[in-house]
Every structure is written in structure tokens, then in C-alpha cells.
Design a protein that fits this description.
The protein is an all-alpha fold. It has one domain. α2 packs antiparallel against α6, α2 crosses α8 and α2 runs antiparallel to α9.
Length: 205
Amino acid sequence: MSLSTLMAFWAFSLLFVFTPGADWAYAISAGIRNRGIGASVLGLLAGYVVLTILIAAGVGVLVASNPMVMAILTVAGALYLAWLGCCTLRNPPVPHADGESATDGSWITWFRQGALVSGLNPKAFIFFLAFLPPWTSESAVWGVPAQILALGLVYTASCSVVYSMVGFGANKALSTRPSVARLVGRISGAIMICLAVMLVMREFF
């Protein structure tokens, strides 16, 4: 795989990275609380790394070709996203002062939630399955699985920068505006619920 191919893939993938979705909503929620931003972003990235490995290993094709498995994945992802959205609506995030102890989850909790948000997202799974292989080449020095891993890591690296900007940007912009922070938090929760409903609708209707 040539450097020019990687750069072209990176430039094209930025269009998707900058598109707001469940990942953005989750990063914003973590940013408002001023706790777990790094853990949340790392969790989101871990989910993408797992998806990349599954696609590179050929598991993705097997899963995508089984309607029952895809339906289960869609329902699981939608239910988790809806649950997270409902929790955010019921308990909207508010900024924590730097010296204030957080009571809304540990580092592990934020990491686990982030990993599940991205790892259980069937849209992300289908995107990786459809988007990564076309950029590979059978004649390249690297094997196709290695190329897919490289492409997935490039995409994940882009996500790390953008999601960190989103999380820390939300914290910077809303840390002194608790009422606005609650509103934005509720909007983020509503977005998660809407995305969950859309996932189920697209799968079954």
C-alpha cells in the first residue's frame, strides 16, 4: 500500500469523522461533566480497533452475511444507545469544578461505555465492512488483512483527534454555563435515542 493511497483514504475518511453522531453525543456528554473525557475517547477508539480487527480477520463478512446475527447486533446496539440516551436525559450532565469529585462514574465506566457505543454500533460495523476493503490491493506488498488494519488505525487516529476536540471543546465552552450545559446534554441524549430508533427502523422496516 502506497503512502498516496493512505493519504487519500485519510482525507476521504475525514468526511465521516466530522459527521456528528452517537460518538459526538457521547464525547460531548463526557466533556460537559469535565470527567472521563480521555477515558471516553479511548473507549470509542477501542471499539473501532475491535471492529477493524474483526474485518481484517474476515469475521465481518461472516457476520454481515447472517441476517439473524446482524439483527441481534442492531437490536443490542440500539438498546444500549437508547439506554444511554435515557440516562443522559434523566440526569443531564453538568460541569464539575476542577476540585470537585465526580460521582457519576469511574475511568473504567467511561471507557466501557465508550467502547460499547462504538463497538455495538451496527452502522459503524457496516461502514468499516464496506469502506475499508475497497482501498486495499491484492498486488500490494502487505497482505489484505494488514492493509485493512493500517486503514482502520488511520481512521481511528483521526477519530482520536476529532473526538478529543469535541469533548474538551464542549468542556471549555460550557464549563461556566450550567443551564446551557444541561440543555446541550439533553440534546445529546435525545440524539442517542433518535439514532437508536433509526437503527431499528432501518433494520426491520
